[in-house]
Amino acid sequence: MHAILDALASPSRFDMPSGEVSPLARLGGELSIPAEVTNPRAWLEKYLLPQKPLNDQDAKEIAPRGPHRDTIGQRFFEQWQVAQFVQRRYAPSFVPRTHPKAAAKVSQFVDGRQELLLMEPVVGTRVHLEDDLQAISQEFLAFRELFRTANMNKQPVFIAYVMTRGHMAAVGAAHQVLSKAADQIINVDDPTQREPFLKRIVDVGSSAMPQGRLPLQ
């Protein structure tokens, strides 16, 4: 096969008899490209040259991956200039992990003197919104159970903050799924809910710092 392809790669003329190409190959009759074809090369590649058969993975349309949920949440805090009070990935070493539903991590937290704000972003336009909400619920409930036996010196507060991005049904979905897991479900697109939320982040974050000191921007 390779010898045939090599012979066809650089022919001296296009009207050669079959035997001059290879004793193993026979050329077919002359075919004309349809008159309406404006790109002969593309037509030949599509209709006459061998094509790689599509497998299931090739045929599957893969949606482009967007930013992670916690990344979108962090950008929200940066936009409203409170990111200096927010730490990422609450995963304390003292929490035991002895059962399948054991708590693993919470996306963001604010560590105050008396309160610990544990926060999860909800992005309304996410394709797997329902899965996100179920995962948040399971994580919050697991931490609640584990904190009951832990020697906590501050009050944990579980907060889900919803960025609807125009998908207002996400607020209702969050209330439905997280009603037993979250202490607060906040629609940050609503200024009357967003402003107290941001103020609480600042107040709690500042409470753990020496008086008169602010975190570096």
How would you sum up this structure, described in words?
A five-stranded mixed beta sheet has the order 1-2-3-4-5, sandwiched between helices. The protein is built from eight helices and five strands. The protein has 217 residues and is an alpha/beta fold. Strand 4, helix 7 (169-178) and strand 5 (184-187) form a beta-alpha-beta unit. The radius of gyration is 31 Å and the shape is elongated. Helix 6 runs parallel beside helix 7.
Task: Report a brief summary of the structure.
The protein has 217 residues and is an alpha/beta fold. It has eight helices and five strands, in the order H-H-H-H-H-E-E-E-H-E-H-E-H.
Supply database-style keywords:
single chain, 217 residues, alpha/beta, 5-stranded mixed sheet, 8 helices
Topology:
Blueprint: H1 2-9, H2 18-21, H3 40-47, H4 56-59, H5 69-79, E1 87-90, E2 106-111, E3 115-123, H6 129-149, E4 155-163, H7 169-178, E5 184-187, H8 191-207
Parallel strand pairs: 3-4, 4-5
Antiparallel strand pairs: 1-2, 2-3
Number of DSSP helical runs: 8
Intertermini distance: 67 Å
What is the alpha-carbon Rg in Å? 31 Å
What percent of residues adopt helix (DSSP H or I)?
Answer: 25-40%
The major sheet is characterized as:
5 strands, mixed
H-E string: HHHHHEEEHEHEH
- Count of beta strands: 5
Low-confidence parts: none
Shape: elongated
